[in-house]
């Protein structure tokens, strides 16, 4: 964790229609994760603002309705474990982003819906994000 500079709130979007079609055809489904606006990234949060990654609250609403509300304490693997594991297989460089997964409740969104997301530590909001689905 000494090599981690900080954190960011990211929305890991998936075009499920592309993913289903590619999986059915036995094809890679990279396009389902690599489309324009697929991964909005919030501002950099210095690691001094998140001293302990074991209890970061992450929430997401669609049109004001809560879809995800969880904590890193619910993750199968801790953040340090994920980074240690990945670094055995990938060279992690300054500025790289590692997305650790999505809390339960991920689901479809439609054009025009409004997504709001947030990241909190010790009941203090460190970032929020709001966008309309294009």
**CATH evolutionary superfamily:** Fumarylacetoacetase-like, C-terminal domain
Rg from C-alpha positions? 16 Å
The proportion of residues in beta strands is: 25-35%
The level 1 CATH classification is Alpha Beta
Number of domains: 1
Q: How far apart lie the N and C ends?
A: 36 Å
**Which class best fits the helix and strand makeup?**
alpha+beta
The residue fraction in helices comes out at 10-25%
Descriptive overview:
The chain is α+β, with helices and mostly antiparallel strands and 134 residues long. The protein has one domain: Fumarylacetoacetase-like, C-terminal domain (Fumarylacetoacetate hydrolase, domain 2, Alpha-Beta Complex). Helix content is 13%, strand content 26%. It has a four-stranded antiparallel β-sheet, with no helix packed on it. The chain has a two-stranded antiparallel ribbon with strand order 1-2. The longest helix has 9 residues, at 16-24. The mean pLDDT is 93.
Using brief descriptors, characterize the structure shown.
alpha+beta, 2 helices, single chain, Fumarylacetoacetate hydrolase, domain 2, two-stranded antiparallel sheet, four-stranded antiparallel β-sheet, 134 residues, 26% strand
């Amino acid at each position: 964790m000494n090599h981690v500079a900080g954190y960011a709130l990211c929305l890991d979007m998936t075009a499920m229609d592309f993913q289903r079609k590619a999986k059915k055809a036995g094809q890679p489904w990279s396009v389902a994760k690599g489309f324009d606006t697929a991964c909005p990234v919030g501002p950099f949060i210095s690691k001094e603002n998140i001293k302990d990654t074991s209890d970061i609250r992450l929430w997401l609403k669609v049109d004001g309705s809560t879809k995800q509300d969880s904590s890193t304490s619910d993750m199968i693997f801790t953040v340090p474990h994920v980074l240690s594991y990945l670094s055995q297989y990938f060279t992690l460089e300054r500025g790289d982003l590692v997305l650790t997964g999505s809390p339960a409740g991920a689901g479809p969104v439609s054009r025009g819906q409004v997504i709001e997301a947030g990241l909190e530590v010790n009941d203090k909001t460190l970032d929020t994000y709001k966008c309309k689905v294009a």
